[in-house]
Specification:
Layout lengths: L4 E9 L5 E9 L8 E9 L2 H7 L16 E9 L9 E5 L14 E4 L4 E3 L6 H23 L8 E4 L5 H12 L3 E5 L6 H7 L3 E3 L17 E6 L3 H9 L1 E9 L13 H6 L2 E4 L7 H12 L11 E5 L3 H9 L6 E5 L3
Parallel strand pairs: 8-9, 8-11, 9-10, 11-12, 12-13, 14-15
Antiparallel strand pairs: 1-2, 3-4, 3-6, 3-15, 4-5, 5-7
Helix pairs in contact: 1-8, 2-3, 2-7
The structure holds NADP nicotinamide-adenine-dinucleotide phosphate (NAP).
The site of NADP nicotinamide-adenine-dinucleotide phosphate has 34 residues, from α1, α2 and α3.
């Protein structure tokens, strides 16, 4: 009997060194070994997926490859007793979509330790509107809360606010009762950010101090940073006494020009955020908060849905810095 085939985006390195992206047919046996075979219904688009799709070897070493660091779907087979056929599940992070065939295909096969049962109050589609970006945003807010940052202490700054992580961070913070200032600059999206609930929208210039002064006017009770570089340095130097900033991204730069004064004079806290290897108990807690107290009512306002065929165009939009909010990918049933 002919082996079952499925549709997937396949990125290939061509002879001229360039990388091509095509929707192709693959076989189940071409998937890596693993405990759980999942039929994917939705995936999503993250910055890391774009890097994988353009041949960034820091993310994906070997091609041909199917990217997609996020997947939500239904278990079709499982050798692990924790999962049975028909279970609705989420798989994000770990190695999915990096060097393990990812969610831009109708099937994935992964270790059981990567699989999260879909929280009761969330649909598969909603879970991918959050995806890794939303999970990272929620993890960032969770860690600020753990560091004792409360809504009555002042404003929380979010950088890269129109992006996937930023949009959801703004929304969750607003839902949790915080006052939010959003940094926006590449394309003017003030109206969009106000819709998400940001009280202030500030420019990249205002959020970037190049004077080199070790401390700036104490302005923020906390911050969620996705940009890094001089913007993160400016934020740290602008924290109120005891303020905390989470650091998850480097869309601006991976450098951090800084000295120790914000830490030893203002007691500033810099909190690293890693969604990829976030331990399962914290992962489960954060997903429960996403599906519970922080569940957003306006998910469709931040979401664009596309097919595997339309995904290439969305990847280009991220590269051209024309992308905003979250893009989810609907896989054929
Ligand atoms: N640590 C983790 O576990 C983890 C997980 C997920 C994502 N990340 C990282 O988080 C970052 C954001 O991811 P994302 O999916 O939200 O990306 P995204 O959707 O592409 O959004 C990035 C946003 O950053 C802003 N931006 C872009 N270039 C900039 C620059 N040169 N200077 C200042 N702002 C700039 C833009 O917003 P404005 O136009 O509004 O300024 C853009 O919308 C990435 O670095 C990603 O790798 C890390």
């Amino acid at each position: 009997m002919a082996e079952k085939k499925f549709k997937a985006m396949v990125v290939r390195e061509e002879k001229d060194g360039r990388f091509s992206r095509k929707v192709e047919e693959r076989t189940i046996s071409s998937l890596p070994p693993g405990d759980v075979l999942v039929k994917v219904r939705y995936s999503s688009l993250n910055y890391k997926d774009v890097l994988s799709a353009i041949g960034n070897r820091g993310v994906t070493k070997d091609y041909p490859h199917t990217p997609g660091i996020d997947a939500a779907g239904v278990v079709e087979e499982s050798s692990d007793p924790g999962f049975k056929p028909g279970d609705a599940v989420i798989v994000t992070s770990y190695d999915l979509g990096m060097n393990t065939s990812g969610g831009y295909g109708q099937y994935i096969r992964v270790p059981a330790g990567w699989v999260v049962k879909l929280p009761r109050n969330l649909t598969l589609r909603e879970s991918m509107i959050y995806g890794t970006a939303g999970f990272t945003a929620a993890l960032s807010v969770h860690r600020l809360v753990e560091h004792g940052i409360k809504p009555d202490q002042g404003t929380i700054l979010v950088s890269g606010a129109t992006g996937g992580v930023g949009s959801i961070a703004v929304s969750i913070l607003v839902k949790a009762g915080y006052q939010v200032a959003a940094v926006n600059g590449i394309v003017d999206e003030t109206a969009y950010l106000r819709t998400l609930g940001a009280r202030e929208v500030i420019s990249i210039e205002e959020a970037t101090d190049t004077s080199g002064r070790p401390l700036l006017k104490a302005r923020w009770a906390g911050a969620v940073d996705t940009v890094g570089g001089i913007m993160l340095s400016t934020t740290i130097r602008s924290l109120q006494y005891g303020g905390a900033v989470t650091c998850c991204g480097n869309v601006g730069s991976h450098d951090l020009p800084l000295n120790v004064y914000p830490f030893i004079i203002r007691g500033a806290v810099l909190v690293g955020i890693d969604s990829q290897n976030c331990p399962m108990p914290m992962r489960q807690t954060v997903w429960d908060r996403i599906a519970g107290e922080w569940k957003l009512g306006h998910l469709d306002q931040i979401t664009t849905e596309t097919s595997l065929e339309g995904l290439g165009e969305k990847i280009d939009m991220v590269l051209e810095k024309k992308h905003r909010g979250r893009t989810i990918v609907s896989l054929p049933e």
